[in-house]
Design a protein that fits this description.
This protein is 66% helix and 4% strand. By secondary structure, it is mainly alpha-helical. It has one domain. It has a two-stranded antiparallel sheet with strand order 1-2. A two-stranded antiparallel sheet has the order 3-4. Helix 4 runs antiparallel to helix 5, helix 11 packs antiparallel against helix 17 and helix 13 packs antiparallel against helix 14.
Amino acid sequence: MSLEASTGTRRNLQAAGDSTGRTSRPFVIPLLFIGFTLPLYFEIAGLQLSGYRIVLLIFFFPALIRWLDGSGGYYAPDFLVLGYALWAALAIFYHHALWRWEYIGISFIETIGPYFIARWMIRDEHAFRVFVRWIFIAVLLMLPFSVYQFIADRSLILEIFGKIGNVYNVVQEEPRLGFYRAQGSMPHPILYGVFCSVAFSLVWYVLGYGKGFTFKMSRAGNVLLATFVSLSSGAWLSIVVQIALMAWKTIFAFLQRKWNLLLYMFAGLYLFLEIFANRPPAQIFAAYLTLKKSTAMNRIFIFTFASDDVLNNPIFGIGFNEWSRPRWIVGSVDNFWLVVALRYGLPSLIFIVAAIVMTFVILGRAQLSSKLESYRLGYLFALTGFCVSAITVHVWDATLCLLMFLLGAGIWMVNTKEESDQLQVEANQRRTRRIRYTRFGPEET
């Protein structure tokens, strides 16, 4: 299922780092994740630039060049992500020509940049662990400010940086469960909550590998708290999905094909609801995956009317034009996948979904050691949680960049299999060249 170049082997991994294939210093990762936590931004020539966007602009072409040289191999998700970004740019140009040139440019960079930076910087378990450590650090940096806002309805981090320059607006919403929604250093509580939720299973399986339950909970508990104070049902859903997958893995550890069984069960449930339920499965999920009944009904109406626009404009979507809806329905669409299809057309949705599916396929078939198997579980659980929560929320800004970075951050595990195979071949060759002693002296065979 992979489209590897012949160069995607141990020899070329060595060219990217040391003799083990390790990238010497994944230095861009801390810069990028610190940029994610900074709420400051400024404008140049109509472009809104923030900390993480500056990092993406600086390292965009180096990352792309390192992919093109074949040192990390070529895989199907690489081309599908490129297809998604190019089709989205084409769709916006089709509807708005160059009037939205700034959006076309920055959207392309925010899609391609994080993905190929991850493909460049993360090529071994050391770099992957650095990535997980820094997403955890990003969560910890925002956590104290978020807890304070959760209790006092005051964003200290935005106030502090607001004295330096432009920052995101504080989102004013009615309390939930008697508390206020925290947004960290991000434009909206939803974005903050989903961003933090991704770290849960990564911290558990990667930073917690070989550690006890207390160690894992002391780390993952911070992620749970950060996600909780956002009071976002979409972010909570991501955590619930990850915990459910962890529980399934533990309870059914004795089953060899437990993940196939889980997929069959969900497919059967969806088919059952499609046939026997009095409303579409999407409406049922929306009704039970939200905190308020009114929110659920709004999402059902939004899905119904926006889907009609998608079917009426399947190729290039509607761009930034108004979508068809009654006046009493709000204009926001709380479904990332629906927004993609609505704005750019069905081909863009197919590209991005296929990239994610192919990532699961090629990683699922990789033969890994027990340690890397743990890393793979944390990665795939985090990606699954993100994708499911994106059904109930729209993601943009740093949180969307995190999705693209996450998508590119796991491909190295396929290269790891190739490297281990090559090392095994070399070991076998060394064994065949052993010294044999005869009565005439040593003799090589």
